[in-house]
Amino acid sequence: MNPAAGNILPIGVFDSGVGGLSVLRALQAELPLERFVYVADNGHAPYGERDDAHVLKRSHAIADYLIASHGIKALVVACNTATAAAIHTLRAAYPELPIIGIEPALKPAAALSKTGVIGVMATRGTLNSEKFRKLLESLHGSATFVLQACDGLADAIERSDAERTLALCMEYTHTMGHFGNAEGEMDCLVLGCTHYAFAALELTTLVGVQVSLMEGGLPVARQTRRLLEKIQPGALATDPATQTAHAPMFYSTGSVGLLESAVHRWLGLECPTLPLQLA
Ligand code: DGL
Q1: Mutate to test the pocket of ligand 1, among 39, 195, 196, 258 (most ligand atoms within 8 A of CB)
Q2: How many of the other CB atoms lie within 10 Å of CB of 182?
Q3: What CATH architecture applies to the domain 3-102+217-275?
Q4: Which residues are tagged catalytic?
Q5: Which of 71, 93, 148, 263 is the most buried (most CB within 10 A)?
Q6: pLDDT-based confidence at 244, cuts 50/70/90?
């Protein structure tokens, strides 16, 4: 390692598909000198409507691959569903590796909300998880949360199906109730799945600009920085040359084309995506 460049090993990031790009966007802004390797497990998605055993198996297969083939110095689980199902076993399996997960932004929403009524959109897997139950319990009495499992929405966003994305956003926000600033209305909407950040425009149009949409990418990026700084001095990359020399790397276990166009659309990058087979 060149000490002047800091630790230039990459940071691994994964999701069931394109959703984690919303987290990668925040990571790149917070840690612009770092290299990232992103795995979209779109050949085995959606995670949110599968059982825990499937999500656990996939999360460990991806972590094994990122460690063995890329020597990552940290792992970001850019998926609420995988964090809920697998973060504890991942941390137990790799005690030396900093592992950062994401959870629906209920705490920041409770701190921000004036009406005390907060909408939460997430996958069925996240809402049914033990981890989410504990999160809700920890906020008991601080706000009322209106929970909505959004079957099909991550898949529609993954496929860039604009018509279906809008139809599902309409259906789910309508079912949840009234949004706005008046008493009893939801003035915050938590996007509890990383895919939903890419439907922010549709959601804002439906619920109104006065409603705050709460994403989890920024806190994850800050936590990644804090954890790396704390664990060992020199853990962060410090040389601007390393960043220009290494664009992020993208791998897909399913449709390479869908990931490539999402990377272009949401990150403004022309990066080739490589196919990846992981049993
Ligand atoms: N993006 C993932 C999340 O944050 C889930 C999408 C899926 O269901 O695969 O929960």
Answers
A1: 195
A2: 11
A3: 3-Layer(aba) Sandwich (3.40)
A4: 79, 193
A5: 263
A6: low
Whether residue 232 is predicted with pLDDT greater than 80 in this model: the reply is no
Mutate to test the pocket of ligand 1, among 13, 14, 15 (most ligand atoms within 8 A of CB): 15
Q: Atom 2, ligand 1: which residue's CA is nearest? A: 79
pLDDT at 235: 87
- Burial (Cβ within 10 Å: 0-12, 13-18, ≥19) of residue 260: middle
Which atom of ligand 1 has the smallest separation from the CA of 48?
Answer: 8
Measured CA angle at 264 (ends 261, 267), to 5 deg = 130
Name which CATH class applies to 106-214: alpha beta
Atom of ligand 1 nearest to the CA of 78: 4
Domain ranges of the chain: 3-102+217-275, 106-214
State whether the beta carbon of 22 lies less than 6 angstroms from ligand 1.
Answer: no
Tokens of 250: 């993208």
The protein residue with its alpha carbon nearest to ligand 1, atom 8, reads 48
pTM summary value: 0.95
Asked, as a colleague might, if the bond just before 46 is cis with ω within 30 of 0, I would say yes
Q: Mean pLDDT of all residues in the chain?
A: 95
